[in-house]
Amino acid sequence: MTRSAIELPVTADDRRIARLAALAIGLTLAEAAIPSPIPGVKPGLANIVILLVLLQYGWRAAAWVSVLRLLAGGLLLGSLFAPGFWLAAAGALVSLSVLGLARHLPDRYFGPVSLSVLAAFGHIGGQLALAGIWLLPAAALLKLLPVFAAAALIFGAVNGVIVARLLAGPVSSGRQSGSCTPPSIP
């Protein structure tokens, strides 16, 4: 038997991205099991992981986790390259673009909650834009816009609060710890 001459070194960053992508994929699969009263409206639980990665490790790591989550989630759910996959991909692309731009805004005004809401609006905007080009007439999209905008605002805010809580670290004696350094994600 001959050995391959190609060896790819695996770094600690690679392992971290793989673990975080696995967590995001797990949340994607769990979310797919939750029935939705309105098709296309989901809480975006995997976006919690994406935002945490963005805030702790940067945009490039967040993009890797997002792409891996999208591909593996599509494969595991049997929707890889189906219309729903492309809608999710459009949403993820716009959301990541919005987050990439928003990271240059003052941290004082744009923390986890506002970034999460911006990302949620970017996600739904990307999906609706692709749906408008490809699947639905503009009149139908206008009727859906208030529902999707309300969902983006609510779920974006809730997910942002979760991220803010996770970044705040452990709570002791009813008060948050004095450390300003966010805990590391393994």
Automatic annotation (TrEMBL):
Transmembrane intervals: 46-68, 80-101, 113-135, 147-168
InterPro entries registered for this protein in UniProt: Hpre_diP_synth_I (IPR010898)
Species of the source: Thiobacillus denitrificans
UniProt protein name: Heptaprenyl diphosphate synthase
Keyword Transmembrane found: yes
Keyword Membrane: yes
Extent of the signal sequence: none
Keywords assigned: Membrane, Transmembrane, Transmembrane helix
One Pfam family from the record: Hpre_diP_synt_I
